């Protein structure tokens, strides 16, 4: 069979199977070169799942998220029980079938506590990533598309936030029990989950703004943007229909990395006592509670929360890596 | 009345200046790059005007000014008798329906994240012609020789020639009176170039649309143009009917350009005399005095450095911006 027949047969059978769904082939008018046709997102997904480590990371991330959501079903113990004599009597038990991760110094089940802390970490990580993406994309879009004085103003504003000593701001904020926005409206305290999400997003959106601005500056010179302007399209349409969809790759990748970073920062703050306050539970204060157990029989108390923290941040970063490779349009496999 | 009239159109760009103050300062010589210098042209309805010149001579800037993608520094652009160089807002948007553009690079001119039907729908949506858009899109695809069933596909699924057809369909979506073709075939294979040029001629015959055809390849321009304007360093140095320019070029630069076109007949090709220009295109931030071509012209005399030659109709009925040609023809 000649290669032309082969092409035609592939095209016809492909068309019969896939119909309008997308996976058909067409014959190039000039070279009879076979061009395989795929829907873009499907090929992104395919490239992502080719990345074994990223796929594994996504799987673990989903499992951890499900475990945090189903904390009550997985572990039957109250993470913060009233400290009765019976609870206290089971203190410092090594991992066993009853308490998979053992019990802490006050007899509380460590697995139940870690699952609650995991939920807290995921909330902060995803919340911060979402919020800082919204702020960063908005600022970056306006600066990169309109340029001129808007760009100068917004970028100096961004620089201002970049030079803030973030740790100092966070530690000071934690000391203010009833923050408000210049007395206009109340803000959640910095030591609550919501407050921490707001603060970390306010201190973490700047790289996203710069990335989006840079993307727009290069995209707006492309001819398809000129074509849209020549047709009479205005700024909002060009941003939402052309520039933003073409910047999805870097935005998604950076947002994913931001998840890991936010989780780590939240844990650090809680470890230092400037995060969520006891009795609320976070991976950071679980580790802080057990900091004197290193090298003793109780080392499992620091090992398990540390391992979970390590795992979740690692997974977030690997997912980001996988997405970066999958979304790179030059990578054609 | 001509469809499009351009009078004394000029565009200056700011030259890149050093942040720390070395290099030319604002307002000093060298601080401005004059991309288009005092250009006057006319296009009649349904006509094709070819604009040729080497890279950097300002022909693309000229095209983008007509589309109002770049604002001119000075001069007048009149479309259907209406001055359009200062239009804003709604009036500008309405005017945009009448003038459209096809770009050189068929890869960067189509949004990679949009399906073909979305690309073609964009001008219709923006201009409030959403009704019957689906019908119009399949009509357009058929018009440029593509299967309407391709509407659901993405640009990367097409070859360069097919993409350029999509670009042409987009430019025609609003039934414009004038389409600026900015080197529409120079990124394509030669075999595909012919197909696309034939498509353009055919569309012009059917739709009566006028073309401003920008190119650096004289053979391509000759094939499609009614009239030709030759540009050098931002200025038009010769205009005339395509056949006239081709058979009897007047300006030395036009002569040199045409002598570089190879002849398909090998016997003639061997005997062909070539004029090889020495030197490079001068910088447009510091153009030579007088005639900008004099630095490379083998005929240059004293007057060429002293006075800028104007593009005037000489007694032979030709429009040439050259002191020597015009002096010779008036003494004849």
UniProtKB/TrEMBL annotation, chain A:
<feature type="transmembrane region" description="Helical">
    <location>
        <begin position="124"/>
        <end position="146"/>
    </location>
</feature>
<feature type="domain" description="ABC transmembrane type-1">
    <location>
        <begin position="118"/>
        <end position="320"/>
    </location>
</feature>
<dbReference type="InterPro" id="IPR050366">
    <property type="entry name" value="BP-dependent_transpt_permease"/>
</dbReference>
<keyword id="KW-1003">Cell membrane</keyword>
<dbReference type="InterPro" id="IPR000515">
    <property type="entry name" value="MetI-like"/>
</dbReference>
<feature type="transmembrane region" description="Helical">
    <location>
        <begin position="251"/>
        <end position="278"/>
    </location>
</feature>
<dbReference type="Pfam" id="PF12911">
    <property type="entry name" value="OppC_N"/>
</dbReference>
<feature type="transmembrane region" description="Helical">
    <location>
        <begin position="153"/>
        <end position="174"/>
    </location>
</feature>
<keyword id="KW-0812">Transmembrane</keyword>
<keyword id="KW-1133">Transmembrane helix</keyword>
<protein>
    <submittedName>
        <fullName>Unannotated protein</fullName>
    </submittedName>
</protein>
<dbReference type="GO" id="GO:0055085">
    <property type="term" value="P:transmembrane transport"/>
</dbReference>
<keyword id="KW-0472">Membrane</keyword>
<keyword id="KW-0813">Transport</keyword>
<feature type="transmembrane region" description="Helical">
    <location>
        <begin position="53"/>
        <end position="74"/>
    </location>
</feature>
<dbReference type="InterPro" id="IPR025966">
    <property type="entry name" value="OppC_N"/>
</dbReference>
<dbReference type="InterPro" id="IPR035906">
    <property type="entry name" value="MetI-like_sf"/>
</dbReference>
<dbReference type="Pfam" id="PF00528">
    <property type="entry name" value="BPD_transp_1"/>
</dbReference>
<dbReference type="GO" id="GO:0005886">
    <property type="term" value="C:plasma membrane"/>
</dbReference>
<feature type="transmembrane region" description="Helical">
    <location>
        <begin position="298"/>
        <end position="320"/>
    </location>
</feature>
<feature type="transmembrane region" description="Helical">
    <location>
        <begin position="194"/>
        <end position="212"/>
    </location>
</feature>
């Amino acid at each position: 069979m000649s290669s032309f027949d082969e092409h035609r047969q592939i095209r016809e059978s492909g068309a019969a199977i896939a119909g309008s769904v997308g996976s058909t082939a067409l014959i190039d008018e000039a070279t009879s070169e076979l061009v395989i046709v795929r829907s873009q997102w499907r090929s992104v997904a395919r490239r992502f799942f080719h990345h074994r480590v990223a796929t594994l990371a996504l799987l673990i991330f989903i499992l951890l998220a499900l475990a945090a959501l189903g904390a009550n079903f997985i572990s039957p113990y109250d993470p913060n029980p009233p400290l009765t004599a019976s609870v206290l009597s089971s203190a410092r038990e090594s991992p066993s079938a009853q308490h998979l991760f053992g019990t802490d110094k006050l007899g509380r089940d460590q697995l139940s506590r870690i699952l609650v802390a995991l939920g807290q970490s995921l909330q902060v990580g995803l919340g911060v990533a979402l919020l800082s993406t919204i702020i960063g994309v908005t600022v970056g879009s306006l600066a990169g598309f309109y340029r001129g004085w808007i760009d100068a103003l917004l970028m100096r504003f961004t620089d201002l936030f970049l030079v803030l000593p973030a740790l100092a701001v966070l530690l000071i904020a934690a000391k203010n029990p009833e923050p408000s926005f210049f007395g206009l409206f109340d803000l959640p305290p910095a030591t609550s989950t919501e407050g921490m999400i707001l603060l970390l997003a306010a201190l973490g959106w700047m790289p996203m703004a710069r990335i989006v601005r840079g993307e727009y500056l290069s995209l707006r010179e492309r001819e398809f943007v000129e074509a849209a302007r020549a047709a009479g399209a205005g700024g909002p349409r060009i941003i939402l229909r052309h520039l933003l969809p073409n910047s999805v790759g870097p935005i998604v990748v950076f947002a994913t990395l931001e998840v890991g970073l936010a989780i780590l920062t939240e844990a650090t703050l809680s470890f230092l006592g400037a995060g969520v306050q006891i009795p609320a539970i976070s991976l950071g204060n679980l580790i802080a509670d057990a900091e004197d157990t290193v090298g003793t029989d109780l080392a499992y108390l620091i090992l398990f929360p540390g391992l979970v923290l390590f795992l979740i941040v690692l997974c977030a970063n690997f997912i980001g890596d996988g997405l970066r490779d999958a979304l790179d349009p030059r990578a054609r496999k | 009345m001509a469809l499009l009239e351009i009078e004394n159109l000029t565009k200056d760009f700011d030259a890149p200046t050093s942040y720390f103050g070395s290099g030319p300062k604002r307002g000093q010589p060298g601080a401005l790059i004059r991309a288009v210098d005092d250009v006057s042209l006319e296009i009649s309805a349904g006509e094709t005007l070819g604009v040729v010149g080497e890279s950097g001579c300002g022909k693309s800037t000229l095209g983008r000014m007509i589309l109002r993608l770049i604002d001119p520094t000075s001069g007048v652009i009149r479309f259907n008798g209406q001055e359009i160089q200062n239009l804003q807002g709604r009036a500008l948007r309405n005017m945009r329906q009448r003038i459209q553009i096809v770009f050189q690079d068929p890869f960067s001119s189509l949004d990679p994240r949009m399906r073909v039907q979305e690309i073609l729908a964009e001008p219709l949506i923006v201009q409030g012609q959403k009704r019957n858009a689906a019908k119009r899109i399949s009509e357009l695809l058929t018009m440029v020789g593509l299967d309407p069933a391709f509407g659901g596909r993405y640009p990367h699924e097409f070859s360069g020639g097919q993409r350029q057809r999509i670009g042409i369909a987009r430019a025609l979506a609003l039934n414009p009176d004038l389409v600026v073709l900015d080197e529409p075939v120079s990124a394509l294979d030669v075999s595909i170039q012919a197909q696309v040029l034939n498509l353009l001629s055919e569309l012009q015959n059917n739709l009566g649309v006028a073309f401003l055809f920008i190119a650096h390849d004289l053979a391509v321009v000759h094939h499609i143009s009614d009239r030709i304007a030759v540009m050098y360093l931002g200025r038009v140095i010769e205009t005339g009917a395509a056949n006239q320019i081709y058979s009897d070029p007047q300006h030395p630069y036009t002569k040199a350009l045409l002598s570089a076109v190879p002849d398909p007949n090998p016997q003639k090709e061997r005997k062909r005399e070539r004029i090889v220009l020495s030197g490079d295109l001068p910088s447009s931030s510091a153009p030579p005095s007088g005639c900008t071509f004099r630095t490379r012209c083998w005929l240059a005399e004293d007057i060429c450095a002293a006075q800028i030659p104007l593009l005037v109709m000489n007694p032979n009925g030709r429009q040439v911006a050259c002191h020597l040609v015009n002096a010779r023809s008036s003494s004849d």
